[in-house]
UniProtKB/TrEMBL annotation:
Organism whose genome encodes this protein: Lachnellula suecica
GO molecular function: oligopeptide transmembrane transporter activity
NCBIfam families attached to this UniProt entry: OPT_sfam
BP-aspect Gene Ontology terms: protein transport
Protein name (record): Oligopeptide transporter
Basic and acidic residues composition bias: residue spans: 11-34
């Protein structure tokens, strides 16, 4: 559900902190790094691309722009003879896609979560691929199973196929909620088609936008750099990569051993708060400095030694310096905002928990927190009972949750304005198809095929904004996937989704379904571009649910289905773009990438549904209980259903004049806040105002509203060391090892956490807790916080 340097001037090393994460198309063009169109082979007129001039891998240079990262951290080289079209790639890709989708769906119904990452998949796929390459090629059968040594393109194919499956589809959450709370069990065939269509709709939209969101050099997608760096290190000449491989496996091994200490033996290391240790009887200290457990506190000045939590939302080692600076500003403002709301008792904040995402009754007070009984305001048809709502009153939310809604809502509209002001050249291609000339050409069947291969090559090689890796692929003759492939995926998914909505009694009308997909298109374009440039991913789910509440008032099921296509589509689209960029950087052919993503998405959707159905059938009563067990929990479905009901009465809770009116007004404010900084920069040319991204700052002003916050301090320490000190003072180490070490830290941690999940955390059916001692303090079950901060007895 929901789930960042002082100085903006040049340093002695002449580094520009716009650097990685805030460059624009104009910055890229100024480098003039792309080839010029010249005559070749007697005046053919084709553009010439010299990859050797673009390949700067390992050069000791302070990297200032996204384009420089692409040419200094990743080799601009390719071996076209390497093929991903092998039985081994399809066999391992299918197997790991099933594994990843099943595991991700299982953990959706667990009290503790594990998220399948690309680094984890990369390590597992490498081990299995190398194992299969040991098969003797003694006859045709064995040669078919092992045609040649396991290569990087097979590996990339497997990763992308598994990645497309490694999500728990939002549509399975609704299908589970219908079964658990609405006494509805949709037809299995219709339900499976719903899951598939909801997954592929976002893929279709993002695929049509790939020329805007993936192919340009400015679209760095920083989240991919550890994986791509790891892939290169594993598969290039072992003599060349000996030192890098040695560093990777040493760090990987250290984390594989170390993580058992903070995760199981000594969990105090997840968040050490000196102030909590010094003063263990103050809720004020807990709220501000505690944070080693969910919804405990803001974690200010706490230090974490657990990489699982430090990198829970992504390793800080790949977050660009400009993005991290804005993150940090938002983080500090979040602490000020939340403490001000709570201790100013705004919206009766002190009558409810400091941090919580539940709905509360008006009888709640500082000593007894009374949850709102949602069954009192629902009719037998599962719509809102106005009489019951009038009798029981409008539910309350915690002040910190309202603060999060206000700042994130401002952030969503601020992001759209910011991208239009600063990055219009990057995103305008997404609207190019709306020009009168293009709309008219759609009526001419001769234009449906698009540009020829030669026209495409000339355009790409002459475009100064293009990623040199993509230019290399085009020049080497890799055939691009036609747009009509993605168009067919989009149209087929759209009509299948529309039909199944009525077949499973979703209560979402056809026009609401269309509106949700319009939002998905707009959000994929704007927030996909923002993630590609800055590495920052915006969570749009609360915004989509709120919009659904106003569009379909009193209909919680319609709200949830609107969210499936409005939010899940955006999320899937962003993952498609992320993986397309991985394929582009490792030079995997577009058609094999398309095949891997479509197969992975379909496999993942089918097994998501199968596992959801199995778990809900076998654990029905347990999933509906408040406590659940140490093995199974319905908390995620419960929260999703609660929010859908809350947003179904948005008019009573959030409209102008209502208690939480600023949640809605904040949308309008978000359109305004980026404009002054833009105008000030244009008139004064003061660099500080260019690098302030209000959309990122605003989202992080609500960052701490949920979860474990004790790791945030360590997150910024590691991030600033990597992206400022290491990048500017030791550029050679940064270029060669920063992203590789990030991958090793992630890989070692995730493999160990996966093992612990089944060995001691109850994933295999029985949990084995480490004996209670001062290093774990007994835990919440004994009404204690692990970091020794005071536990609030009103939390129950």
């Amino acid at each position: 559900m929901a789930t960042q340097r002082p100085g903006f001037t040049k340093t002695d090393t002449d580094v520009d902190v716009k650097g990685i994460g805030h460059s624009t198309s104009h910055d890229i063009e100024k480098e003039s790094r792309s080839p010029e169109v010249t005559s070749e082979d007697g005046g053919s007129g084709h553009a010439v691309f010299d990859a050797s001039k673009e390949n700067h891998f390992g050069e000791a240079k302070v990297l200032e722009t996204n384009a420089q990262v692409l040419t200094h951290v990743v080799h601009v080289e390719d071996d076209k003879s390497l093929s991903p079209w092998t039985f081994r790639a399809f066999f391992l890709g299918t197997g790991l896609a099933i594994f990843a989708s099943v595991l991700q769906e299982i953990y959706y119904f667990k009290p503790q979560a594990i998220y399948i990452s690309l680094v984890f998949i990369t390590v597992i796929a490498y081990a299995l691929g190398e194992l299969m390459s040991l098969l003797p090629r003694i006859n045709k059968v064995f040669t078919f199973l092992n045609p040649f040594p396991f290569n990087s393109k097979e590996h990339a194919f497997i990763i992308i196929m598994s990645s497309a499956a490694a999500t728990n589809a939002v549509s399975t959450e609704i299908l589970a909620a219908q079964r658990l709370y609405y006494n509805m069990d949709p037809n299995p065939g219709a339900a499976i088609f719903l899951v598939i269509s909801s997954q592929l709709l976002g893929f279709g939209i993002a695929g049509l936008l790939r020329s805007v969101l993936v192919q340009p050099a400015n679209m760095l997608w920083p989240i991919n750099l550890p994986v791509v760096s790891l892939l290169e290190t594993l598969h290039r000449d072992k003599v060349e990569t000996r030192s890098r491989l040695k560093v990777f496996w040493i760090v990987f091994g250290i984390l594989l051993v170390w993580e058992i200490i903070p995760e199981w033996i000594f969990p105090l290391l997840q968040g050490v708060s000196v102030l909590c240790l010094a003063k263990q009887n103050s809720l004020l200290v807990t709220n501000l400095f505690g944070g080693s457990q969910g919804n405990e506190g803001l974690g200010f000045l706490s230090i974490s030694f657990d990489w699982q939590y430090i990198a829970s939302l992504g390793s800080p080692m790949w977050v660009p310096i400009a993005t991290m600076t804005n993150n940090f500003i938002g983080y500090i403002l979040c602490i000020v905002l939340f403490m001000g709301i709570y201790y100013g008792n705004i919206w009766r904040s002190q009558d409810f928990p400091f941090m919580s995402q539940l709905l509360y009754d008006n009888t709640s007070n500082a000593t007894v927190f009374a949850q709102y009984n949602l069954s009192l305001i629902l009719t037998p048809e599962n719509t809102i009972d106005k009489a019951g709502l009038a009798e029981n009153g409008i539910p309350y939310l915690t002040g910190t949750y309202i603060g999060y809604l206000i700042t994130s809502n401002m952030g969503v509209t601020a992001a759209i304005v910011h991208m239009c002001l600063w990055n219009w050249e990057d995103i305008k291609g997404g609207f190019h198809w709306l020009s009168p000339a293009n709309l008219q050409s759609l009526l001419n069947p001769k234009t449906w095929k698009g540009e020829s291969k030669e026209e495409h090559m000339d355009r790409v090689l002459a475009d100064k904004r293009m990623d040199p890796h993509y230019q290399l692929m085009v020049q080497e003759g890799y055939e691009e996937v036609p747009n009509w492939w993605y168009g067919n995926v989009l149209l087929l998914s759209f009509f299948v989704g529309l039909g199944t909505l009525y077949g499973i009694k979703s209560t979402l009308p056809w026009w609401g379904y269309i509106v949700s997909n319009v939002f998905a298109f707009i959000f994929i374009l704007f927030f996909g571009a923002q993630m590609g440039i800055t590495g920052f991913q915006f969570n749009q789910q609360p915004i989509i649910q709120m919009l659904a509440g106003y569009i379909h008032p009193g209909k919680p099921l319609a709200n949830m289905y609107f969210t499936v296509f409005g939010f899940n589509g955006v999320q899937q689209g962003q993952w498609l773009c992320r993986d397309l960029k991985v394929a582009q950087l490792v030079h995997l052919s577009p058609k094999s990438t398309f095949t891997a993503q479509m197969l992975g998405a379909v496999i993942g959707a089918i097994f998501n549904y199968i596992m959801m159905k199995t778990i809900v059938t076998n654990q029905f009563d347990l999933l509906k209980s408040v406590e659940g067990s140490n093995v199974w929990s319905g908390q995620n479905v419960q929260q999703y259903n609660t929010l859908a009901i809350a947003w179904s009465i948005a008019g009573d809770m959030f409209s102008v004049g209502a208690r939480y009116q600023w949640v809605t007004i904040s949308y309008l404010l978000g359109f305004i806040v980026p404009v002054p900084f833009y105008l000030i920069y244009k008139f004064t040319n003061i660099r500080f105002f260019k690098y302030i991204n209000l959309s990122i700052i605003l989202w992080y002003m609500g960052w701490l509203f949920v979860g474990v916050n004790s790791s945030i301090g360590s997150y910024f320490i590691v991030g600033f060391i990597a992206q400022w000190w290491l990048r500017t003072k030791h550029p050679n180490l940064f270029v060669n090892y920063n992203y590789l070490v990030s991958a090793a830290l992630d890989g070692g941690t995730q493999v160990l956490v996966f093992i612990l999940s089944f060995a001691v955390f109850g994933g295999s059916g029985k949990a084995h807790s480490f004996p209670t001692w001062r290093g774990n303090n007994g835990g919440v079950s004994n009404q204690k916080n692990i970091d020794y901060c005071m536990y609030n007895p009103a939390n129950g």
